[in-house]
Amino acid sequence: MQIKRLSSQAADALLILLREEDTENFSNFSGLDGKLRDFVMSLISRKDFTGKKGSLVKLPLFDSSFKNLYLIGLGKEKKCDINLIRDSLAWGFRKIGRERNKTACVLLKNLSSYKELALSLGEAAGLCGYVFDKYKTKDENYEPFALEEIFSDIYDENEISTGIKLAEAQIFSREIINEPGCVIWPSTFADIAQDVAHEFNLECEVWDENKLKAERMGGILAVGSGSKNPPRFIHLTYKPENAKKKIAFVGKGITFDSGGLDIKPENFMTTMKGDKTGACNVLAIMRGAAELKLDIEIHGFMSLAENMPSGSAYKPDDIIRARNGKSIEIDNTDAEGRLVLADALCMASEIKPDAIIDMATLTGACAVALGKFRAGLFCNDDKLAENFLASSNRRGELLWRMPLEDDNIAETLKSPYADLINCGERYGGAIFAALFLKEFVDENIAWAHVDIAGPDFKDKEYGVYVKGASAFCVRTCLDYLLNL
Ligand code: BES
Ligand code: MN
Ligand code: ZN
Fold this sequence. Notes:
Layout: E1 2-5, E2 11-18, H1 20-24, H2 34-45, E3 56-60, E4 66-73, H3 82-98, E5 103-107, H4 114-127, E6 149-152, H5 157-178, H6 186-200, E7 203-207, H7 209-214, H8 218-224, E8 232-238, E9 246-257, H9 266-269, H10 277-291, E10 297-307, E11 319-321, E12 327-329, H11 337-350, E13 355-360, H12 364-370, E14 375-379, H13 382-395, E15 399-401, H14 407-411, E16 420-421, H15 429-438, E17 446-451, E18 457-458, E19 468-469, H16 474-482
Parallel strand pairs: 1-6, 2-4, 2-5, 5-6, 9-10, 9-13, 12-16, 13-17, 14-15
Antiparallel strand pairs: 3-4, 7-8, 8-10, 11-12, 14-17, 18-19
The chain binds ligand BES, manganese (II) ion and zinc ion (ZN).
């Protein structure tokens, strides 16, 4: 997708986003020439368009330099923030592109601050055309997304290009997440990571099952033991000269979560190809950081395993040992994410970064608590939490901070046979999981854990999302790095 500075008023589509207040004062609206302005004015005075949130008026134009007019309502000014604008733009561009418009003009400058708009325009333009349809046979009725060029009255080359890179990173992650378990398993994921490392000049280490044994990565080995596809641990490093900070990202990469011997019922097993989202996001962040040429040393740790039931699978009652020596009683083999993350968090702690950020589709409980549109943030450091929440608010990937101090729930981590048990009672399941992870993090390091089980997979399209993987948190993490 190309975004260009609006120079002449001509394109297949004209897109205008208006708040309710803008329709009341439309005579002040600048940027439209006489005839079109009168036309929009008459639509408004007939109440055909009032600017109501989520409303869309689409009309073919005759005798105009545009073929189609799209008006989108943003609702009341007070409640119209950059996230609503970004979502509305993505929605509008998606419609425009699907309705076979190749070029579009967009008028935005009345809406918000220039830079903020430019960056979000880049994100929306980058994300609007994405669908996962590579396995569909494309017959003569197939209509590809046509939109190729956007002319905008807001134009800041740097901000727009940053926005596009954020979007591309997110799409890169979605593309892998959406691949099913028959395509992506630990070693095929590692192949992709190696390709990325090669292309972007990153250091890359891949540990196979023998190395995992030698390195005492007992959590990853246990979870991977039931599958014919053995587990992998990946460490990518992006190391620019004179880096001003060192940040580690950790991702859960369960390429398929059947639950293991504590097997999931069928309705809970579909979409579990998405249980590798954390690792896909981390890979996308590494790639994005290199593309954005950030001046920060960044480490990506990814734990890849397939959680399957079989004769060799790990079992309830097993006692395993994580990399830091802590023993863990297995109560439920479906609580596998925390086990693969345990080893990875030890590894991240060992390199002593300024901060560790892990992300994982960890608990259904977090989705129950916060819904499907918001992820849970658990953090041992207020400054990190504040910065990370600010990024999340700017990028529209909503988070809610959850408690990481709870002595009563911490009490239930105890096992009579081992140092820890991997699963407690149903209530407070997301907090239990976070407290479990805390046992593997160096307490002197600022650490954030993001439980993305809720917003991970979209069942319908809206805003910047389409059905399937969201790759939620990629843009937030890159925004966090950009603002360090
Ligand atoms: N991958 C799941 C969590 C999940 C659920 C992600 C729904 C996305 C959507 C995780 O491994 C899991 O199975 N968690 C269990 C934990 C329980 C056994 C303590 C859960 O949430 O039920
Ligand atoms: Mn599970
Ligand atoms: Zn899982």
